[in-house]
Amino acid sequence: MIIVFGVAMSEISEDIIFKTNSNEKLELNEKFVRLKIRKDGIMSINFRCNEKNMNEVIKFFGNFKGSNPFIMNIGDTGDIHCYFKGISPMLRKVDETGYPYSFVSVTVQELKTPVQNEESEEKSCGCYSSVINKS
């Protein structure tokens, strides 16, 4: 527990956890994961790690199809519901110190629940006939 300005704050974990609806789980240290936020809730999750950890990433995301839903939890701060959009080919590289690493990028879209208009109690099907019947 950390105390900031007299207020007890919980520590943020260094782990990022990915979970499927069927409780498959991938847990990695934050040093292997970078997020790039794009517009409209699209994110690139970039993984740069050793071969052992990369095999876990590929095993987890490799079988996803289409809009597979999953949950991402960054540092135990709460669940972020996402849909899988795609995965890049894996690249194998060597950094300037001679350390071999692998890189892959996963594209996801954050699942946002639509905001209901509280003033409108009547539900519309969105079809043309619902507009005509209001006149």
Topology overview:
Blueprint: E1 2-4, E2 7-9, E3 15-20, E4 25-29, E5 33-37, E6 42-49, H1 51-61, E7 69-74, E8 79-87, E9 91-94, E10 100-110, H2 128-132
Antiparallel strand pairs: 1-2, 3-4, 3-7, 5-6, 6-10, 7-8, 8-10, 9-10
Task: Describe the structure in your own words.
This protein has 135 residues and is mainly beta. The chain has a single domain (12-113), classed as Thrombin, subunit H. 12% of the residues lie in helices and 44% in strands. It is built from two helices and ten strands; from the N terminus they run ββββββαββββα. The chain has helices at residues 51-61, 128-132; strands at residues 2-4, 7-9, 15-20, 25-29, 33-37, 42-49, 69-74, 79-87, 91-94, 100-110. Strands 3, 4, 5, 6, 7, 8, 9 and 10 form an eight-stranded antiparallel β-sheet that branches. It has a two-stranded antiparallel ribbon with strand order 1-2. The longest helix has 11 residues, at 51-61. The termini are far apart.
